[in-house]
């Protein structure tokens, strides 16, 4: 007589009971652990979409295996990640809009004052030029008068010096007997001058005056 396995009998009974409560085989998951399949929230992945109908496939974005292309991406490399600057929206730069400038209207009073001020300044400039010309003429006349007076004084001085020179030469060349000492006395300076560095010539002057007086007598 064959010996029955108690564990197998127990599992068979439990399997029958769970089959009544639910159509899904609870013990079939033990076999799935040995052959795992990727599921998403109770649904199989795109490789196991045989149980999904057409609407479910469209909803979950399931496609045929022939249309799916897989690429091996290196998630550990930061070079493959998008740069933050590339994620910013590209907005077209709009050129600045030229704002028309309205012409400034000058009030009548300001325009009149500006014209009067311009006329007043022109008149003052003209008067200033006239005054400058008058001062130039006056300075020119004063300079001419000064040169004229200077020339006259120089001419008088020349004539006076020339007359004095002629008189001096005439007296010097006149040889009158008995007036030798008198001529010598005229060449001497008898006015006493106080000078610390000058020699005392008072005795010499006294002798000359005595000789002049003695010769005259």
Overall shape: it is: elongated
Mean pLDDT: 71
Structure annotation, total helices: 7
Oligomer: single chain
Give the amount of beta strand, in percent. Answer: under 5%
Radius of gyration: 72 Å
Residue stretches low in confidence (pLDDT < 50, at least 5 long) are 33-51, 56-76
Number of domains: 3
**Spatial strand sequence of the major β-sheet:** 1-2
Structural class based on helices, strands and sheet pairing: mainly alpha
Number of strands: 2
User: What distance separates the N and C termini?
Assistant: 213 Å
What's the main sheet like?
2 strands, antiparallel
Which keywords apply here?
mainly alpha; coated pit; membrane; clathrin heavy chain binding; coiled coil; 3 domains; cytoplasmic vesicle; two-stranded antiparallel ribbon; 217 residues
Structure description:
This protein is mainly α and 217 residues long. It has 3 domains: 1-62, no CATH class; 110-174; 176-190 and 201-217, no CATH class. Helices cover 56% and strands 2% of the residues. The chain has 7 helices and 2 strands; from the N terminus they run H-H-E-E-H-H-H-H-H. The chain has helices spanning 6-21, 28-34, 54-59, 84-87, 108-173, 180-187, 202-216; strands spanning 39-40, 43-44. The protein has a two-stranded antiparallel ribbon with strand order 1-2. Strand 1 and strand 2 (43-44) form a beta hairpin. Helix 6 runs antiparallel to helix 7 (202-216). The longest helix has 66 residues, at 108-173. 0% of the residues are buried. The model is unreliable at 33-51 and 56-76 (pLDDT under 50). It is a peripheral membrane protein. One of its GO terms (molecular function) is structural molecule activity. InterPro entries: Clathrin_L-chain (IPR000996). It is found in: Cytoplasmic vesicle membrane; Membrane, Coated pit. It holds the Pfam family Clathrin_lg_ch.
């Amino acid at each position: 007589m064959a010996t029955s396995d108690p564990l197998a009998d127990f599992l068979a009974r439990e399997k029958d009971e769970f089959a009544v409560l639910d159509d899904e085989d609870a013990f079939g998951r033990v076999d799935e652990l040995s052959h795992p399949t990727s599921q998403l929230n109770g649904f199989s992945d795109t490789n196991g979409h045989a149980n999904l109908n057409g609407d479910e496939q469209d909803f979950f974005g399931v496609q045929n295996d022939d249309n799916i292309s897989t690429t091996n991406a290196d998630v550990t490399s930061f070079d493959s990640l998008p740069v933050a600057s590339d994620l910013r929206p590209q907005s077209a730069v709009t050129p600045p809009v030229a704002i028309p400038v309205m012409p400034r209207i000058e009030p009548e009073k300001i325009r009149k004052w500006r014209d009067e001020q311009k006329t007043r300044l022109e008149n003052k400039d003209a008067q200033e030029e006239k005054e400058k010309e008058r001062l130039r003429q006056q300075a020119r006349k004063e300079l001419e008068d000064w040169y004229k007076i200077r020339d006259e004084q120089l001419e008088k001085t020349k004539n006076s010096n020339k007359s004095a020179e002629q008189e001096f030469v005439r007296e010097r060349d006149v040889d009158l007997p008995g007036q030798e000492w008198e001529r010598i006395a005229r060449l001497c300076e008898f006015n006493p001058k106080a000078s610390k560095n000058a020699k005392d010539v008072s005795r010499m002057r006294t002798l000359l005056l005595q000789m002049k007086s003695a010769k005259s007598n």
